[in-house]
Amino acid sequence: MSTLDVDTVTRVAEEKPEVLKKLTVRDKDIDFIDDLSACVELERLDASQNAIEEASGLKRCLKLTWLNLATNKLTSMHFVYKMKNLTVLNIGNNLVEDMSPVSNLTKLKALILNKNRISEVCDLHKLKSLNTLVLSHNAISDIDVSSLGALTKLQLSHNCLRKFPDIAENGELKQLSLNDNKIHKIPARCIGDNMRLEIVDLGKNELNLLVSMKRLSHIHSLRQLNLRGNELCNNERYLSKIRKWFTNLEVLDTRPFAETSKKTPLKEQRDSKKRKQRDLDIEDDDDSEKKMKTEKKMKPLQESPAMNGDKSKKRRKKDAEAKREVVLPPDTAIRLNKEDLANDGSGTTATGQSPVSSHDQKLKGVSALKEKKSGVVAIKRVKKKGKHKGAMGDVIADISCSVDVGSGIGSSW
Question: Where is the composition biased (Polar residues) (predicted)?
Fold first, then answer.
C-alpha cells in the first residue's frame, strides 16, 4: 500500500504540484490521500480502483470540478462538503452510509453513488443543475426528486422502494430505472402530463394493476418498457391490453420470472421444468439411438482386442509349424515305420503316442521331431540304394522340394 502525497504527485505527474491541473492515479494500490493543499490548481482527479479508506487530504483542493473515487474503501465523503466547484462526483462502489455532504454542491451535474450502504437520501433541493443521479444498489426506501427540474437520468434499481417516486415535476427526465424493488402500483399524481420519458425499467417489482400501465401509456415519447417479472405479466388478458396501448414501443419486455410469479406456485413451475427436461432427455435419447444406428451402418469393421488375440494365436501356430518344415537335399529318402502306416497314415499309434521309435531317435542326420497331437513321423537321411524289403515297397527318393510332415491327418500321406 502507498500514500498519495505531494511527493507522489510530483513523481507521477512529472510536473510541479502548484501548476498541476489533471492527475490520474488509477489502480496504484493507494490506501490514503495525504494533504494535497499544494495542488492549488488541481481540477480533475481520478483515483479510482484503489484501496483508499481516507481522503481528507483533498478538502483543500477547492478548484476540483471532476472527482472519481469509485471502487475504494471510503466510509465517509465529508471531504467534499466545501468543494463548491464540483460538477461530476463519482464515489460509487464504496462503503458510504451518509450522503448529506453533497447537499451543498450547487454546481453538481452528475452524482454517482451506486453500490454503497445508503438508506436515506439527503435533501437535494439545492442541486438545481443535477441531470444524472445514480443511486442503484443501496438500501433506499424513499426518495424525493421533485425539486430536480434538470434531471434527465435517474437510476434507483436494486433498492427497497415500495412507492413509485413522484416524477411529475421532472419534465426533462428521459431514463428511469426502478427495477428490482417492491413497487406495486403507479399513482396518477406521480406521472406528469408532458413527460419526455423514453426508457422505463420496472422489471422485477410487484406491479399487479392494469391501471398503472394505462397511466404510462399516455407518455407518447416512450420507446422502451421493461415489465419483466411482475405479477401482471402472468395475466394474458392484461398483456393483450398492454400491447394495444403501447403501440409506439420499440422494446416491450413482459416475460414472467418464476421466482416472482404468484399465479403459478413455485412447486408447479419446478414440476413443469422437470417435465420439459424429461421430454428433452427422451428426444436426446431418440436422436442418440438413430445416430448410433446410422454410425453402425456406415462405420467399417474394426478389429477388437479379442480378434487380435485370436489372430496372434493363429500366427504363432503358423510360425511354429513353419519351424517344423524340413528341406531335404536331393539324395534324401524318407522311411516310415511299418506300424505307422497300419493306422492309415494318421501319424499316431493305437495308443495315441508318437510313432517315433527309439532307434530312429538315435539316428544321425536330420533330428527326429516329436509333437503330441501333430502326427509327426520320423525322418532320417539314407543313401540311395536299390529296393528295401517290407510293406513299403520302393523307397521314395530324389525328393528336392520342401516337405511338410507335420500336418497330421490332413497330409497327403
Answer: 345-358
Residues of the chain with pLDDT under 70: 257-314, 321-413
Helix (H) or strand (E) holding 9: helix 6-13
Residue 72 near residue 96 (C-beta atoms within 8 A): no
Contacts of range 284-289, beta carbons closer than 8 Å, 24 or more positions apart: none
Regarding whether 107 and 27 lie in a shared domain, the answer is yes
pLDDT of the residue at 2? 83
Alpha helix locations (H) across 14-72?
none
pLDDT at 315: 74
Element (H, E) at 216: helix 210-216
Question: Domain tally for the chain?
Answer: 2
Look at residue 63 and give its three-state secondary structure.
coil
Statement: the pTM of the whole predicted model exceeds 0.90: no
Q: Are residues 69 and 157 in the same domain?
A: yes
Instruction: For residue 296, tell me if it sits in a domain.
Output: no
Residue 13: φ, ψ to 5° = -80, -20
CA-to-CA distance for 82 and 95, rounded, in angstroms?
21
- 3-state SS assignment for residue 177: strand
335 with 233, same domain: the answer is: no
Instruction: Report yes or no on 205 lying in a domain.
Output: yes
Determine the pLDDT at residue 136.
Answer: 98
For 60, the domain range is 2-270
